[in-house]
C-alpha cells in the first residue's frame, strides 16, 4: 500500500507542476487578455491554459490515471483548470489527505459546453430541431434565378448559406441573398448568410485554346455496330459551353426546318455526312446522324430535300487544352501572362520544346527557392524546383500518374515548404468586403496565415464600422495557418463572434495526406479549448452531390463531422437529396450519442 501511496504522491506532484505552469502562462498573458472581447475572456483564458498544458508529454501521466480508473484528461480542453484541480483533489482523497483547494477555479464542464453553445448560436444562428450540428451549403449561380431550389434547400435543413466571392458578381450575390431571405421568411427559419473572400488563391494561368470543333459520335455495341445515332441540336446561339451537342445557326433558317428534312455537311476531315431532322421546337431542332462527324465554326449545312439554302455554323467554344505531364518531365512556370502550351516533339519523339504554363500570382517568384516543392491540382502532380530565373521557374515533375497527368488552366498551386509571406487579404477582397459588410452575417476569411492577417482584416472592418457587426470564420487551409492557430485565435477573439473552418482540401495538400487526420483533430481540440465553433468542410458527400450516389467512406466522413458544430456541403445537382440524407445522419447519430451519455451515470453507480 505504501508503494501505491508513493506512486499517487508522485502523480500529484506531476499534476501540480502542470497547474503551476498553466497559471504562470496565464499571468504572462495578462496584457493580451485585457484586449480580448468580454464575451471571449473566459474562453481565451482557457485556451492559454490548454496551450501550456499541451506542451507537456502526458503519456505516462495519462496511463497512470487510467490505471486508477480516473479521467485521462484527454477530453478536458474545454474546461482544463477545473479538470486538473478535481483530478488532483481525487488523488489526494485516495491517500487520505484533504488539503485546502479551490475546486471552483476555472470553467466547469457544464459552463465550458454552455460557452461553446452560446458562441455557436451567435455565429451560425439557431440549430434545427433534433440536430445540434448546423449545415452550411455553398450556393451555385443558379440560386440567383431559381427560387424553388433555394426554398427546397431551406426546407430540407440548410442553416447557413455560403456565397463564394471568387465567383460571380455583386448583382448575382444580391439576388441569391434575396432568394435565401424570401425562402427563410416563407418557412419561418432564419438562415445565416456567410460570404467567402476569395483570398490569394494561387492558380495556373491560361493555356492556348484548342480548335473550335465539336465531335459527335453515335453509340456502338461491342461489335462496333451503331445501335443509336448521335444527336445534334441546332440552336440560335450557345450560352453555355457545357452543352456539348449544340451547334449555333441562324434563327431564321432554323425555324424553316420541318421533321423529316434531310441535311448534309462536310466535316473537318472532308467526310460527307447525312443528317435527319427528328424533332422541331420553337428555338431548337434535333438531328440524328449515323456516323461520327467533327463540326467546326464555319461548317456549312445544307437541306437537300427542300430549297432552304445553306447555313453556316456559328462561333463554337474552343476545346479546353491541357498539358500532359509525366514523371521526370520538365515544366517551365512563367511570371507573366504568357499563354501555356504543351510540350512539343519532333517526328522521332524527341523533345523540341518543353511545356510552359504561367502562375497567376507572380509574387511567389520572389519567395521560392531551388529544391522546394510545388503541388498542382490538389496535389495530383508534384514538382521540385530545379532552377530559378527572373522571369521563370524550371520544375522537374517527380510524381504523376503512370500514363501522365493532365494539368489544366485555373488549377490550384500549393507551395507547402515555402513561406510565401502573402497576405490573406487581396485588393479584390477589400473591394468585395464593402458588399459583404452590407449584406452578410459572417465573413469567411480565406488563406489566413498569421495574426498579422487577422489584424489586417480587423483594420478593414473598422473602416466600415463593422468590427462588432460582422462575425468572422477563419479558413484554415495552409500549413502556416495550422502552425499559427493559437495566436490567430487569440487575435481574432478581440471581436465577436468567431469560428474556424477546416478547409481540408488545400490543408491536406499543404500538410500531407498522411498528416491530415491528425491535423484536423488538433484543430478541433484547440478550438474546443477556445470554445470556438468549427465548420467541417471540403468534399463532404461530394460524390452524392455530383453523381447522385454516396460512397461508404463519404457516409462515415459525414458521421465524423459530429465532432464539429457545422458541416459544409458544396454545390451539385443532387444537393437537396444530400441535405435530406445528411440531416437524417446527423439527427440519428446525435440521438445515439445522447442515449449513451444518459447511460453513463447509471453505469458509474454499478
Provide structural commentary.
The chain is of the alpha/beta class and 606 residues long. The chain has four domains: 5-107, no CATH class; 115-200 and 423-593, TIM Barrel (Alpha-Beta Barrel); 213-313, PK beta-barrel domain-like (M1 Pyruvate Kinase, Domain 3, Beta Barrel); 322-414, M1 Pyruvate Kinase, Domain 3. It is built from 18 helices and 29 strands. The protein has an eight-stranded parallel beta barrel, surrounded by seven helices. Helix 3 packs across helix 15.
Write a short abstract of this structure.
The chain has 606 residues and is of the alpha/beta class.
Topology:
Layout: H1 2-28, H2 30-34, H3 41-53, H4 59-67, H5 80-94, H6 109-124, E1 134-138, H7 147-155, E2 160-164, H8 170-187, E3 192-196, E4 213-216, E5 219-220, E6 226-228, E7 230-235, E8 246-248, H9 251-254, E9 262-266, E10 272-280, E11 285-289, E12 293-296, E13 300-303, E14 310-312, E15 323-325, E16 330-334, E17 344-345, E18 351-353, E19 355-358, E20 373-376, E21 381-388, E22 392-399, E23 405-407, E24 413-414, H10 427-439, E25 442-445, H11 451-463, E26 471-476, H12 479-483, H13 485-492, E27 498-503, H14 504-511, H15 516-530, E28 534-537, H16 542-547, H17 552-560, E29 566-569, H18 575-605
Parallel strand pairs: 1-2, 1-29, 2-3, 3-25, 7-8, 16-19, 25-26, 26-27, 27-28, 28-29
Antiparallel strand pairs: 4-12, 5-6, 7-11, 9-10, 9-13, 10-11, 13-14, 15-23, 16-22, 17-18, 20-21, 20-24, 21-22
What's the CATH superfamily of the largest domain, by name? Answer: Phosphoenolpyruvate-binding domains
Reported by name, the CATH topology of the largest domain is: TIM Barrel
- Content of β-strand: 15-25%
Uncertain residue ranges: 600-606
The count of DSSP E runs of length 2 or more, i.e. the number of strands, is: 29
Assembly type of the shown chains?
A: single chain
Q: Evaluate the radius of gyration.
A: 30 Å
Shape: elongated
Number of domains: 4
